[in-house]
């Protein structure tokens, strides 16, 4: 068994390797630009050991990428809404995500259980832009929509760890 998969392998100060990996994941989830030196200080390992562990976490698919988090309001997209969609014709193919992929105002698309088939998170510049987007969604995917406008968000993009 290799060291990245061995929960009994001691990390810093006898800490199990899984705990060290979890600490690295948590630190990177909060700051994807953290240096290996900063990460090494946080988990009590050498810089080269941290570099090796991060590379293994990437190879194992636990780290799937790094990205910048953008300020939607500063980008001119202050209005966030959740749009639930339901096919008009239940016999139609379940291909709404593919039909909607070209609409860049759709930030997220989630398949859900319940009355609706999908819930979309959208960001637009204004109520008029939202109305136009809803028209485009209905036309592109042959669906009905139910929209909830976000008044304020207390946290977003919170890491799961």
Written description of the protein model:
Keywords: DNA-binding, Transcription, Transcription regulation. One of its GO terms (biological process) is response to amino acid. This is Lrp/AsnC family transcriptional regulator, leucine-responsive regulatory protein. With 161 residues, this protein is of the alpha+beta class. It has two domains: 57 residues, Arc Repressor Mutant, subunit A; 71 residues, Alpha-Beta Plaits (2-Layer Sandwich). 34% of the residues lie in helices and 18% in strands. The protein has five helices and four strands, in the order αααβαββαβ. Strands 2-3-1-4 form a four-stranded antiparallel beta sheet. Strand 2 and strand 3 form a beta hairpin. Helix 2 crosses helix 3. The longest helix is centred in the C-terminal third of the chain and has 15 residues. It is elongated, with a radius of gyration of 21 Å. The N terminus is likely disordered.
| Helix/strand structural class | alpha+beta
CATH level-4 homologous superfamily of the largest domain: Lrp/AsnC effector binding domain/regulation of amino acid metabolism (RAM) domain
Show unreliable segments.
1-12
- Strand segment count: 4
How does CATH name the architecture of the largest domain?
2-Layer Sandwich
User: What is the helix/strand order?
Assistant: HHHEHEEHE
Using the alpha-carbon principal axes, give the shape: elongated
Q: Helicity, in percent?
A: 25-40%
C-alpha Rg (nearest Å): 21 Å
- Calculate the terminal CA-CA distance, rounded to whole Å: 25 Å
Count of the domains? 2
CATH class group of the largest domain: Alpha Beta
**Largest sheet report:** 4 strands, antiparallel
Keywords: DNA-binding, Transcription, Transcription regulation
Protein name: Lrp/AsnC family transcriptional regulator, leucine-responsive regulatory protein
Domain HTH asnC-type: 19-78
InterPro entries: ArsR-like_HTH, AsnC-type_HTH_dom, Dimeric_a/b-barrel, Tscrpt_reg_AsnC-like, Tscrpt_reg_AsnC/Lrp_C, Tscrpt_reg_HTH_AsnC-type_CS, WH-like_DNA-bd_sf, WH_DNA-bd_sf
